[in-house]
Specification:
The complex is a heterodimer.
Chain A (H helix, E strand, L loop, with lengths): L4 H14 L1 H30 L10 E5 L5 H13 L3 E7 L1 H11 L4 H6 L8 E6 L4 H12 L4 E5 L1 H44 L1 H10 L3 H39 L14 H30 L3
Antiparallel strand pairs in A: 1-3, 1-4, 2-3
Helix pairs in contact in A: 1-9, 2-7, 2-9, 2-10, 7-9, 7-10, 9-10
Chain B lengths: L1 E10 L3 E11 L4 E5 L6 H8 L7 E6 L2 E2 L8 H5 L2 E5 L10 H10 L5 H14 L15 H13 L5 E5 L7 H16 L3 E5 L3 H7 L2 E6 L2 E6 L6
Parallel strand pairs in B: 3-8, 3-9, 6-7, 7-8
Antiparallel strand pairs in B: 1-2, 1-4, 4-5, 9-10
Helix pairs in contact in B: 3-4, 3-5, 4-5, 5-6
The chains are: A alpha+beta, B alpha/beta.
């Protein structure tokens, strides 16, 4: 039997109008939960994309004072060669530092053009033989006390901490999103149950005259699906806005030297939007499907 | 057309609504079901359109055992059975003709057919003038006519009526019975549960009497008691 689309559209439309407050609440909840899931997905992708992960080995950066003499540099180098706590040492002179600088900030030519190799400090990149925090800190303290040393940074450790915090925050965003999706399913369930109840006379007549099960159920399932998809549409706009905001406020800001490493491709934004619509449709279908099978005897 | 074979229906494991009932109704018959409230009349009707399933026995409608009918086929059974109730069950937000059209829309009939069939059936039940009225603008008798039009618009083989005159005064009831009689004369089998002694006694049709779920009397051209 061909089920007329205009019939489903008409019935679904009148249900939506009749139940405006509940409908509005469920669509909004779907939108918020999906937006959170999308943001969490994008940040998660961003963390994986960033080179923070690549530097996850413990590493010490010993920055030399720009005014440090060659003797002082040699003295630090000798100290490092002799130290049992050091596994490998890499020396970055001004040229090499500048190359790295150009590479890291290639997306910001304005910044690169204002810096010359002379502006950059020379540094030793040290991989300690032990990643034990106490050993590394002791080594760092010894080096920091040497003549001509500007400062010692535990860059990877710091990056890892930032990464860990962002990841933890992100996990919570995802959990809140998931909980809200659960709430969305319940809200849609309840909205559809109300719609079924409001139309119980029609349903009774339809059953009596021999309307098929799908004919009776489809408008209700379509309504739940509509909630899910409209919520997803709103969430897609939110994800798009989040993407733009993140780029404007973090990615292109030198000030956030670690957060600006968390970035994602347009293709990852599109997969986030794909996820939004898939989860939204699923949320609507499950909520209304359960309501219809529980409360719609055919 | 309808055959019950040792049918027993028990509600909630204890209340026996129909006990070992066997009866056969031919095509085109007009049958009254009589008996006190709770004697099993409504259950009898509800078994025929598969609103209920029997615990024991077989029910044949148009040659098919509907007790064994899979759920997805039940709607197609019901398209052959019109149902009329004491409380009309009209949709208050739809006009008279929309109420009747709804029965055809719900089974996916093409719009051209609906446009033709609805005025025709309203003419038959004498409500052509009230096609655009709302149900609450009609008298009880007129509302029941709408409900009969809705039950009959798809030309079912069987019409089940559960106390269709229960809410109507005697004069109006006579009009409704004339309409049901007319429908019966088109070849439609009519099974009607009723408490209305006057109607049963004046029409002199087959009477099946139920008492505590048992068929205690089956009389051609019978009377109320």
């Amino acid at each position: 039997m061909a089920i007329r689309l205009d019939y489903i559209a008409k019935e679904t439309g009148s249900n939506l109008a009749r139940n405006f407050t509940l409908t509005f609440a469920s669509i909004l909840t779907v939108a918020v939960s999906l937006a959170l899931v999308a943001a969490s997905y994008l940040i998660g992708q961003g963390i994986n994309n960033s080179f923070l992960g690549l530097r996850s080995d413990v590493q010490l950066f010993v920055y030399m004072n720009p005014a440090a003499t060659q003797e002082q540099i040699d003295a630090v180098a000798r100290e490092l060669d002799d130290s049992p706590g050091v596994e490998t040492v890499d020396f970055y002179d001004k040229e090499r530092s500048y190359e790295e600088f150009q590479r890291l900030f290639e997306e910001q030519p304005d910044l690169v053009s204002t810096i010359t190799p002379e502006d950059l400090p020379q540094s030793f990149r040290i991989k300690p033989s032990s990643s034990d925090a106490d050993v590394v800190t002791a080594l760092g303290d010894t080096l920091e006390a040497k003549e001509g040393v500007l400062r010692v940074e535990y860059a990877a450790e710091f990056a890892r901490q930032v990464q860990r915090s962002v990841r933890t925050l992100n996990t919570w965003v995802l959990i809140v999103g998931a909980v809200l999706i659960g709430a969305s399913v319940l809200l849609i369930f309840n909205t559809i149950r109300t719609a079924v109840f409001a139309r119980r006379r029609e349903i009774e007549v339809m059953r009596l005259v021999g309307a098929s099960n799908s004919f009776i159920r489809l408008p209700f399932v379509a309504e739940g699906l509509f909630h899910g998809l409209l919520g997803a549409l709103l969430a897609a706009f939110a994800a798009w806005g989040f993407d733009a905001l993140w780029k404007r406020n973090f990615v292109n800001q030198v000030a956030f030297e670690l957060l600006n490493q968390i970035r994602w491709d347009p293709s990852q934004l599109w997969s986030a939007i794909g996820i939004i619509f898939a989860v939204g449709a699923l949320t609507g279908a499950i909520g209304s499907g359960v309501a219809v099978s529980r409360f719609l005897r055919v | 057309m309808i055959k019950l074979d040792n049918v027993t229906k028990i509600y909630k494991g204890e209340m026996v609504a129909l006990r070992d009932a066997s009866v056969e109704i031919e095509k085109g018959e007009f049958v009254f079901l009589v008996g006190a409230s709770g004697s099993g009349k409504s259950t009898f009707l509800r078994l025929l359109n598969r609103e209920e399933r029997p615990e024991q026995g077989h029910i044949f409608v148009a040659g098919k055992d509907i007790a064994e009918l899979p759920g997805y086929k039940v709607p197609y059974l019901r398209r052959n059975i019109g149902s009329v109730f004491q409380d009309f069950k009209l949709l208050p937000t739809k006009t008279v003709s929309e109420n009747v059209a709804f029965a055809l829309e719900a089974i996916g009939r093409p719009r051209a057919h609906i446009r033709e069939a609805v005025p025709q059936i309203l003419e038959l039940v004498g409500l052509a003038q009230k096609a655009d009225n709302m149900p609450d603008e009609l008298s009880g008798g007129e509302q029941q006519r709408v409900s009969i039009a809705r039950a009959f618009v798809n030309r079912p083989l069987i019409l089940l009526a559960d106390e269709p005159t229960g809410n109507l005064d005697p004069a109006t009831s006579v009009g409704i019975m004339k309409l049901l009689d007319r429908i019966n004369r088109t070849g439609t089998t009519v099974v009607m549960a009723t408490h209305d002694r006057g109607i049963v006694d004046s029409m002199r049709r087959r009477v099946i009497e139920l008492d505590h779920g048992r068929i205690v009397r089956d009389q051609a051209r019978g009377v109320y008691e």
